[in-house]
Amino acid sequence: MVSxxxxxxxxxxxxxxxxxxxxxxxxxxxxxxxxxxxxxxxDPSAAPFQGRVWIEVxxxxxxxxxxxxxxxxxxxxxxxxxxxxxxxxxAYAVDDEFLALEVSDPVPAGAATLEVRFTGRLDDKGLVxxxxxxxxxxxxxxxxxTAIEARRAFPCFxxxxxxxxxxxxxxxxxxxxxxxxxxxxxxxxxxxGWKEVRFARTAPLPAEVIAFAVGPFETTAARRAGRRxxxxxxxxxxxxxxQGEYAAAATDEVLRRLEEYTGIPYLWQKLDHVALPQGAxxxxxxxxxxxxxxxxxxxxxxxxxQEKRRAVRGLMMHELAHQWFGNLVTQAAWEDVWxxxxxxxxxxxxxxxQERAPAQKNLNAAAARERMMALDASPKTRPVRLAxxxxxxxxxxxxxxxxxxxxxxxxxxEAWLGEERFRGALRAYLAHHKHGNATTADLAEELGxxxxxxxxxxxxxxxxxxxxxxxxxxxxxxxILRQGGSEPWTVPVCWRTDGAAACTLLRxxxxxxxxxxxxxxxxxNAGGTGYYRSAWPAGRVPPPKALTPAERFTLVYDLQKLxxxxxALEALTRDAEPQVAEAARKALGLDRK
Length: 593
Fold this sequence. Notes:
- By secondary structure, the chain is α+β, with helices and mostly antiparallel strands.
- The protein has four domains: 1-216, tricorn interacting facor f3 domain (Immunoglobulin-like), CATH 2.60.40; 225-323, Neutral Protease Domain 2 (Neutral Protease, domain 2, Orthogonal Bundle); 330-459, Neutral Protease, domain 2, CATH 1.10.390.10; 466-587, Immunoglobulin-like (Sandwich).
- The chain has 14 helices and 29 strands.
- The strands form seven sheets. The chain has a ten-stranded mixed β-sheet, with no helix packed on it. Strands 15, 16, 17, 18, 19 and 20 form a six-stranded mixed β-sheet that branches. It has a four-stranded mixed β-sheet with strand order 27-24-23-29.
């Protein structure tokens, strides 16, 4: 709270007019958090809540002003403790995104503790920050902090590069239950019909995946899952616990697939799947407390089908993949959020392919890629990696490009490098940045070679290349690969013919590969894994029966703009794989009424 003493108020008025917000929507590097302790008093039936936060920080140099993030909070007393001294701090908001703590004497370099009391409001209409909802006649509190909404719940360093341990304590009405990222360690009654619930200290986490929930919840019986046998439950509103049984039961299988691939066991202390009445996203990967819109998690008797169960597993696979890609290793900045969402998209598809026949591998990924390429070729295109200089720009932080295009690029890299080499590089990436942050350059270093140039081409540019393949026959048979445009891409082209198969890194406008014999046909997108269009030479279009379903699906979209290929498309409308046949009918306009 700003002092009411006139001389100091006048001095602070001058400071406030002078103090501009931090540049680039990001906090300065001179002060970094080391750990948090947060206490909140929350009654779901009332919008206001009170809180207090202690943040241990490290200062690179002496400072009289320390910047944090805060939004929509009324700040009370604030102080800075350092070297045995407690310095009263004046706190004021800037641009409704930042909080400045001012002290009269410089805080020396080294360790200090910030203490701030505050009041906030639970949102009754929105779905970000801490919010509350009336569900089945009861009030519940939930949180959605990604990407920049933790600042609505408590003052903090609300950027992904700031990862620290957290300790939470929630004071709640006696009849309510509280959940957070870590297991409960204590629960004790307090005066006035309240109780205090304390949670264990977490591993280092960014503010965006801290989470809590308060209300008259029910839970399924605890199960054990994964290599470490961590406890798993589904948390639901009153009366719906039975509908969460399948999600809890399926967790062990989902976790074990991811543990086997990454070589790292699930490292958080427990796992609760929480059902939400509504959500800003379909699900959010908060470690230990993953939240899902209820229709994607719960199975009522009338919706309990094999198809629905597969959808639940697929959604859980994406969110659990984040426990490695996003939570264990967190992107260092918002422009690299693809390291979280792109990876979760790619690996969840890869894991769910294990439930399909081997010949159908990559079919769903090919379908998602084609939808993405259509958007990438439209006026709505944007690069995967994009600077986020303000809140308005942050509305695009979770663009489809960081999910689907980035996931497609990872699939292409895996096909080019080979599954074992690719997995080895990812395991090294996770091990080297465990509980820390990483950048696109860090991933490129683990992938090695020219992978960084491929990532630069596909993540920092819009659109996609077009690959043309020609066969040269005679004594020196060869496959000639070409790409158009004045600025060539660095693109891995995996191809096969009726007599050969390989991947070629096309760095310039043309490359030549020697063949033993003249091919009868050429497939320039082997496995349907490449993020590019193929232009087919006359007489070299592969026969559909020689291709996998994913390759045939890709073929449909490569042929649809060529009138002379109508017979080939008509043949594909009779494909045994429904997704391929449907795509071919759509390409021919046969699905129009």
